[in-house]
């Protein structure tokens, strides 16, 4: 059997040969769990091990590595810089959320021209075309759950201050490789695990609570309403994407990579912004722009920007953080009749300003991803796969705690509204990860491969 063959196609073949679904599932596990290609493995001895043991063991090996074992971290200073860069990359891009709550189970508004502003009616027409191009409303609505596995490469490319600009001239060699697995279940449940450069972020939503676990903060819930994972909007979930832009306005046209596109603009409402704010940290705005190709009708570019104001604890000027993510969505191919984007790239800018003149900083990061396998209506996937960790710390944390260390207040520490929470979370050991893996985490076959329906 070709090791590149997908799990579900392999499973169908094994069942067709007369094996029981349970036995066929065991035999079909290996192809999906294959590790990275030899040239992608970190270090010479990682290639053979990845090929023999499969993706699950390779991930566990990567997570067990000391951070300084990589070629980039040959010295103490380089090791610290690498860890800081990786923390920033995963904190900002690992499990970013969409601006507003959305429920794909709710029907989209009917196309109406009478007594409707032209910007709104145009947006509705564009979304109708998008749904038709993606496979049609009927087919998309038949998807109860979905699965996607892919590869990523993340790198910090540039850091700019008032005095100088430091560019990463070896960005191609310093890029951190990794992989991710994403499960979704209608209408609002999702779970993702992302392993990059020896660190892992996993996050999920059970329809009522969004939570995230990082090595530096442990497990915590997110402030504000339940929101979709931004990564699923990047060409993996057309129905949620259309529902997200249901309240958008068409603001014009623009070329993207030579393709004429309509632009839809969506703004988070004040109530949502207040719910996501906490203490001295206030989310001022969060705007999402979607660029839909006039030729294909598909989403080809996604841009979102949110601005946060952090008031100084000493009564001085506030500090502002503006985070902008530009994603180019490419290589659409049909999967079971649904158009899915199989690759893309994102450019992220973190801009910090305020306090005093000439004190701004700007950090640029990049991510490239590709999708290796997608499946819909996976047998056996249940709500139990989306249960949050049992030891989530009390209270929730806003996204401001994921800002780089230079985002601290003038007093030299985190804001009072976050300090106690972060201190408690950072003392947490790896119990969360062990419990999650015991229940079926990223390094476990139990969650990766949901039990096959015996009647299937």
Automatic annotation (TrEMBL):
<dbReference type="Pfam" id="PF04788">
    <property type="entry name" value="DUF620"/>
</dbReference>
<protein>
    <recommendedName>
        <fullName>Lipase</fullName>
    </recommendedName>
</protein>
<feature type="region of interest" description="Disordered">
    <location>
        <begin position="16"/>
        <end position="51"/>
    </location>
</feature>
<dbReference type="InterPro" id="IPR006873">
    <property type="entry name" value="DUF620"/>
</dbReference>
